[in-house]
Design a protein that fits this description.
Layout (H helix, E strand, L loop, with lengths): L2 H21 L9 H28 L6 H16 L6 H29 L4 H30 L25 H25 L4 H21 L1 H4 L5 E2 L8 H5 L2 H9 L4 H32 L2 H11 L1 H6 L4 H27 L1 E2 L6 H15 L4 H29 L8 H9 L3 H16 L9
Antiparallel strand pairs: 1-2
Helix pairs in contact: 1-2, 1-16, 2-11, 2-14, 2-15, 2-16, 3-6, 3-7, 3-14, 4-5, 6-14, 15-16, 15-18, 16-18
Length: about 450
């Protein structure tokens, strides 16, 4: 099929799935627009993650399996920007934490200076060792005291520094615009981490790069889970303000109630739909803008250069291209999109739950989206995100229905029946594997291949 026809047709078929999910209760479809919009909003966020991975893999051939860490940094940015400052936390130890971090950074910089300026030999080694020991002791002494002070401030509800929201603990939700400011900040924070990772790991071969990014991602998650002063660790930060209205506020609005009654909708249902549609509009604007920018970059001289580097690094180096520098650029850009998506997801959830950041969701599934949709094709990655996320949600009820039908004639209490019913929980992984195998067999370049 001609690709100019195949692309809109596939998008139309995926759109039909969401329409059936909202409008009919036939077979696997819930017949609920609430359910359809819930799936759609997470699909939009997943599409942004897939777009970021496609920049790295489809444009430059960089195998990054540390997506989870950059997504978590985006969630952290949402807390640091949109939540209010914890009363008393800075005076209890916040300044000590900052000063301790400055001491740690100064120790590293001083050692770098000594390594560059001093002559190689035993004297330089002893000096650097003394600097490391003294600097580490001072750093831990100041930093640990600050951490203890901050985490002792109302640990049941806060116990962390808080964010930049100008509102107090009682009225910070009125400043929902701060959450929108947190989205680009999530991208910036992820980009900064990507720069540090790229400086150390991008010189590695593709398989070693994958191992390095996975390890660094796990380190990021471990730090966020254990440093309670930063974002409460695994205690979770809840009540993150919204950039859209709250349902209760809509339900108390006379104008909104009148419009809902005019449309023949229950006020509660109408308020829920209005909030989810507001998120859909915001996420769609961001995604469309990113697709346009990605397409412009792909068709620019820079994009052609990136694909030339991907296809033959030796030839690109021979033409005078700085391959490592270009790899660093694309690695930072792709990671920034993952951080942006992570901030948007935390906003949608209304909470930061670091215990839920699992590689299965934030790495494996995103890679399946890119591979199924078509790596190297921005629209293909977006299509894969919509399709795979829809199936990821719907396969579980399909599995339960299928196993119920298979075991309908079996006696109650049968060991085989119980085993098959319990196996329905694994239907998601089984289905994703089957889809991936089928696509790789019959359309190895994805549903919408790169031109």
């Amino acid at each position: 099929m001609i690709q100019s026809i195949r692309t809109p047709l596939l998008f139309a078929l995926v759109a039909l799935l969401f329409i059936l999910q909202g409008s009919t209760s036939w077979w696997i479809f819930a017949g609920s627009w609430n359910a359809s919009l819930t799936i759609l909003n997470m699909a939009l966020i997943s599409a942004i993650m897939a777009l970021g991975v496609n920049l790295q893999w489809g444009y430059a051939g960089l195998f990054n399996v540390g997506i989870m860490g950059f997504v978590a940094l985006g969630g952290l940015a949402t807390v640091l920007v949109s939540m209010p400052k914890t009363p008393g936390a800075w005076s209890a130890g916040g300044f000590g934490i900052v000063f301790g971090l400055i001491l740690g950074a100064a120790t590293i910089l001083l050692m770098v200076f000594q390594h560059k300026r001093m002559s190689p030999g035993r004297g330089r080694n002893l000096t650097m060792l003394a600097t490391l020991v003294i600097g580490f002791v001072l750093y831990r002494w100041v930093f640990d005291a600050g951490v203890v002070g901050v985490e002792a401030v109302n640990p049941a509800q806060t116990g962390y520094l808080g964010g930049l929201n100008p509102g107090g603990p009682d009225n910070y939700r009125a400043h929902g615009y701060m959450t929108l400011l947190a989205w680009p900040m999530g991208g910036v924070l992820a980009a900064g981490a990507a720069w540090l990772v790229g400086k150390t790991a991008l010189g590695l071969r593709s398989d070693y790069l994958a191992i390095a990014t996975l390890g660094i991602s796990e380190i990021i998650i471990a730090v966020l889970k254990n440093e309670d002063w930063l974002a409460r660790g695994v205690k979770n930060v809840i009540g993150i303000p919204r950039p859209v209205p709250y349902e209760i506020d809509l339900q108390q609005s006379t104008d909104f109630v009148n419009r809902a009654e005019t449309l023949g909708l229950d006020v509660t249902t109408a308020s829920t739909l209005a909030v989810k549609l507001s998120y859909t509009a915001l996420f769609s604007v961001v995604l469309i803008a990113l697709i346009i920018l990605a397409q412009l970059s792909l068709n620019s001289p820079w994009g052609r250069m990136m694909r030339a580097i991907r296809d033959n690094e030796v030839a690109a180096r021979a033409m005078g291209k700085d391959v490592t520098k270009r790899h660093l650029q694309i690695f930072i850009l792709g990671s920034a999109l993952c951080g942006l998506a992570g901030a948007m997801m935390t906003t949608l959830d209304g909470q930061l739950t670091l215990g839920s950041y699992q590689p299965l969701r934030f790495t494996f599934l995103i890679w399946v989206m890119v591979i199924v949709g078509g790596s190297g094709n921005n629209l293909g990655s977006v299509l894969g995100a919509f399709l795979i996320w829809f199936l990821w949600i719907q396969v579980e009820p399909i599995g339960h229905w299928l196993m119920s039908e298979i075991t309908r004639g079996m006696a109650d209490g049968s060991a085989l029946k119980e085993h098959l019913l319990d196996s329905a929980a694994h239907m998601r992984l089984f289905t994703m594997g089957i889809i991936l195998l089928l696509v790789l067999r019959f359309s190895p370049r994805g549903l919408i291949p790169e031109k």
